[in-house]
Amino acid sequence: MNGALLVAGTTSDAGKSVLVAGLCRRLAREGVKVAPFKAQNMSLNSMVTADGAEIGRAQAMQAAAAGIAPEAAMNPVLLKPGARMSSQVVLLGRPVAEVSALDYRDLKPRLFDAVLDSLADLRARFDVVVCEGAGSPTEINLRDRDITNMGLARAANLPVLVVGDIDRGGVFAHLFGTLALLSPEDQALICGFVVNKFRGDAKLLAPGLDRISALTGRPVLGVLPYLTGLWLDVEDSLALEADRGVAAPPLGEDILRVAVVRLPRISNFTDIDALSVEPGVVVRFASTPAELADADLVVVPGTRATVEDLAWLRERGLDTALARRAAAGRPTLGICGGYQMLGREIDDAHESRLGRVAGLGLLPVRVVFAADKTLARPAGFAGGAPVSAYEIHHGIVTVEGGAPLFTDPDGVPLDGCRDGAVWGTLWHGALENDAFRRAFLAEVAAVAGRRFTVSPDTSFEAARQARLDALGDLVADHLDNAAVDRLITQGAPAGLRFVPPGV
C-alpha cells in the first residue's frame, strides 16, 4: 500500500485526531509503514522530540499509534496562542516569530514551503501518511491562507474524509454545509463522510445516512460509536472533561482527590493524564477556591501566559486558597508555569513584558524570563527512581532554598524545589514515570491523611497503548476500510461533483 489521505472535520474537536490515530494504529497492525501529519496545529499541548524539536502533543500520540518516534516533520507549523491576541510560531520544532492573526498572513509562503517539503519527506520514507486538518475546511474567511485543510489537499492532491460529531447535534447540516460552502475545485477532493460519537440504535440513523449520501453524492464510510475515556493526549482545552473519573476502584479505603487549576491559557495539561490512570485517583479541573479547599492534591499546571494567568489566580481568590493549603501543610504541585507562579518573584521582559511581578511566595525560587526558549529532554532521579521528562519554557528558575525534586545519580540538583508540602518542577511528563508517580502519590496520601493504597503495577505506557489499541479497534470495526484504503492508494475518484438540491 502506498499513498496519503487527509482527515478534515466539520468543527474543532469533531474527532479528527482520534480518527487519524485510529487509522495509524489499524494500518500499523496490518504491517503498513505509516506516519501522521498535521501541517499546522494551534495548540498549547506540545512535547519535545528526541532531537529537541517542539511539536503538537496530538501528533506525538499519533506517532505512538503508528509505532514510530515523533519528529518535527509530522507537525511542521505549531501555533501557540498567548497573551495580547498573539501567537508564537514554531516552525520545524523551533520558535521563529510572535505574530498577530493579521501578521500571520505574511508568513504563509515560508510556512507553506516547509509544510509541503515535510509532507514530501514523510511520503518518501513511509508507505502511507495520514494527514489531519485543523478546525473546519470551510473557514471561508481564511481560505486564501489555508495551509492545512483544502489548501494542503489541493497542493498535494489528497483525497479528503470529513468527520462530524453527532453528539453535538446537527451533524447532517454540518456535513452538507461543509461540502456546500467549498469551491468546486475543493469539493472534487471530498470523498466521503464519517459520523463520530454516535449513541443509540444504528437502525434509527440509517435513513439519515442514506439521505446525506443522496444529497451530496458522497458515501458515509463509517459511524464510530461514542466511547468514554479516550482523552489521553488531547489536543486542546475544548476536549477537557470536567471529571476524568476513576480508572478503577481504590485499593485502599480512600480515594485520592486531585484538583487541577483550569488556567485561562492552560498548557500541557496532559501532564495529569498519568494521575488519571491510577486506581482510586479522581482528577477534576477547578477554577474556584472552594474546589481547591477539599482536594488532597492541587496541581497548578503549565501556561502560555504565566504573568497574566497569575493575575487571574489573584482575581478569583485562588492565591489565598493556595496560601491556606501551604500553611496547613496540604499538598500542592506546580508544573512549569505553575511552578514559576509559586515562587517569590517573576521578572518577565519578554512574554508579558510587565517586568518584575510578585509571585505567590510559596516556594523559595525566583524566575527571569529569557528571550530564547528552552527545549530539552532531561533525565534524572527522584528518591532513587529514574525519571525522564521534557522541558518547554522561557523562564529560568533560581532556587534559593528548599530541597531539589530531581537530581543526578550523585545527588546533584537538576530541577525543581520542595518546601514543606509544596512541590515545583519545570519538567513535563515526569508523572508518566511509574516508580516516581507511585512514590509521589504515596507521599501525597500520607501528608493528606488518606488511607490510600498506591497500585504496585499500574503502567502509564500500558494504559496509553491500550487506549491506542481501542482506537485501532474502533476504526477496524466501524469503518469501510476497504473503501478507505482505495482512497489512500488511488486518490479521489474522477468526476466528483456536488449539485445542491433544486439547482
UniProtKB/TrEMBL annotation:
It holds the Pfam family CbiA. Residues 257-435 form the CobB/CobQ-like glutamine amidotransferase domain. Residues 6-230 form the CobQ/CobB/MinD/ParA nucleotide binding domain. Keywords: Cobalamin biosynthesis, Glutamine amidotransferase. InterPro entries: Class_I_gatase-like, CobQ/CobB/MinD/ParA_Nub-bd_dom, CobQ_GATase1, CobQ_N, CobQ_synth, GATase_3, P-loop_NTPase. Pathway: Cofactor biosynthesis; adenosylcobalamin biosynthesis. Gene3D superfamilies: 3.40.50.880, P-loop containing nucleotide triphosphate hydrolases. The active site is at residues 336, 428. It comes from the Bacteria. Belongs to the CobB/CobQ family. CobQ subfamily. Catalyzes amidations at positions B, D, E, and G on adenosylcobyrinic A,C-diamide. NH(2) groups are provided by glutamine, and one molecule of ATP is hydrogenolyzed for each amidation. This is Cobyric acid synthase. The lineage of its organism: Bacteria, Bacillati, Actinomycetota, Actinomycetes, Kitasatosporales. The gene is cobQ.
